[in-house]
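Entry 14. Ran structure prediction on the chain below.
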Amino acid sequence: MKDFFDNLFLRIIENCKRKNSRILLYFVSFIESIIFPIPTDIFLIPYVLANRNNYLIITIFTTLFSVLGGVCAFYIGLFFWDYFSEILVKYYPSIVDGINGFKKDFGIYGNLLILLGGFSPFPYKVTCISSGLLGLDIYQFILFSSVSRFSRFFIVSYFFYRFGEKAKFVINKYIYVISITFVILFIYMFLD
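Output, structure tokens:
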């Protein structure tokens, strides 16, 4: 079974080298910010491994499309929440719970929640929809989203650029520990 997944991963990397193949990565980055349940990082890794010398450009465009998707989710929260909330309550109750928690905590932590939401394992889409629902300043939302999403994608990209295939083992085993460590560092930096 391990050979099957290793071969599959190698085929994915080969496909990532094709011209215009990054469109899929950028599309996933965009829709992940709105509704797609799988984190962009999983798609980012093979593209960086296939194009290691372009890791920074890949990171920038992945961030750009993620934030653009976040802006769409922001406006969904701002203008269409009443319509979509019924669907989300029925099919995605955890997203609604996350939005309610975000609304409650925003009064205490403010824009730090946008930074954490864009960086941490907490679903970014919840941060985006909640920010729109609360009517936050769109420019602050874009700024803090850009910083947090770029930071997250840069760390993943640079790690795979620097260590290549060896990084795959570390990420698979320690992704949540790494994310939580960075969230704690972010909190420490902003609350100090």
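Residues 120 and 183 are 6 Å apart (CA to CA). Will compare against last week's run tomorrow.
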